[in-house]
Design goal:
Largest sheet: none
Structural class: mainly alpha
Number of strands: 0
Distance between the termini: 26 Å
Strand content: under 5%
């Protein structure tokens, strides 16, 4: 679970730098952090390159390049919408390719003999889908604030926090639930 949360470090760095310095700096900082995470996986012993890390580098690098070259001045929630939508797309593509992004993290913890079992893959499909729902909620919250400027920003922030906390809790609960059910059955 901690490795999945660490994979979101570029998004946390982006959010902090975006808030303090600005969007372009936040996007660039997210790209640099994603590059560091990718390099760690490329050169670290026992590590593998993750779909989420590659997608995050492409997302932040692409958005930073676009913003710099186009001189884009996006509102805060406009930038967040692009980042959250990109994250949702990364997760949906991982599902569509039958390589749910959580599978790579789960394989680093699970015994090799379970990697190809239908139950193991299915549980990662479900957990990845839960993350996709969380990111969809975040995209909807960003859109709501952009389309309805009269809405208090705190609603979008609350929706984002609740979506992420729910995905984290579900990711921890679901494997335990499956193990308990298997022991009973």
């Amino acid at each position: 679970m901690m490795k999945i949360l660490l994979a979101f470090a570029p998004f946390i760095v982006f959010a902090v730098v975006d808030r303090v310095v600005g969007s372009l700096a936040g996007l660039a900082a997210g790209a640099v952090t994603a590059a560091i995470m990718l390099a760690r996986d490329l050169f670290g012993r026992g590590r593998s390159v993750k779909v989420l890390d590659v997608g995050t580098l492409v997302l932040f690098g692409g958005l930073a390049g676009w913003a710099a070259l186009a001189g884009a001045e996006w509102p805060v929630f406009g930038v967040r919408l692009r980042v959250d939508l990109g994250l949702l797309l990364i997760v949906l593509v991982s599902i569509a390719l039958r390589r749910p992004f959580t599978l790579q993290y789960a394989r680093e913890r699970a015994p090799r003999e379970s990697w190809d079992s239908p139950a193991f893959i299915r549980s990662n499909d479900v957990i990845t889908a839960a993350w996709a729902v969380a990111f969809l909620v975040m995209v909807a919250a960003d859109l709501a604030v952009l389309l309805r400027p009269d809405l208090p920003v705190r609603y979008a922030v609350i929706a984002t926090v609740m979506a992420l906390v729910s995905a984290v809790h579900f990711s921890a609960w679901y494997p335990r639930h499956l193990r308990a059910r298997a022991q009973q059955g």
